[in-house]
Amino acid sequence: MIMRIFQVVTRPGKEAEFSRFFHETAIPLMKSTDGCLTVLPGAARPESPREFSFVMVWRELEALKAFVGEDYRSAHVDPAEAEIVESRTIHHYDLVET
């Protein structure tokens, strides 16, 4: 299984707009995507009001690639978020079973 950590920093003043997109579009989309087994969304906190994140667990690399394409290391950007996000980071790990 692949753990994907996706973090965004919104453009200044776009926090509320991104929060709506995050809750109304991004979270439901990820929860309904085939191969995405776990979705742990992280909303902004007072000390970092422009930062949001997702921790996702994918069944396998092929399922992740089916969603984002062969270049899975690049951000999959929904057109609705393109103008409200300043930066994105993505990291992948092999999930450690405990």
Explain this structure to me?
The chain is of the alpha+beta class and 98 residues long. A four-stranded antiparallel sheet has the order 2-3-1-4. The chain has one domain (2-94): Alpha-Beta Plaits. The protein is globular and about 35 Å long. A hairpin with an 8-residue loop joins β2 and β3. The chain contains two helices and four strands. The mean pLDDT is 92. The chain starts with a strand and ends with a strand. Its EC number is 1.14.-.-.
Percent in strands: 25-35%
Question: How large, in whole angstroms, is the Cα Rg?
Answer: 13 Å
Q: How many structural domains are formed by the residues? A: 1
Number of helices: 2
CATH class, anyone?
Alpha Beta
Mean pLDDT: 92
As for the CATH topology, it is Alpha-Beta Plaits
Biggest sheet: strands, sense, closure? 4 strands, antiparallel
List the helices and strands and how they pair.
Elements: E1 2-10, H1 15-31, E2 36-42, E3 51-58, H2 61-68, E4 85-94
Antiparallel strand pairs: 1-3, 1-4, 2-3
Task: Provide the descriptors you would attach to this structure in a database record.
single chain; 98 residues; alpha+beta; Alpha-Beta Plaits; globular
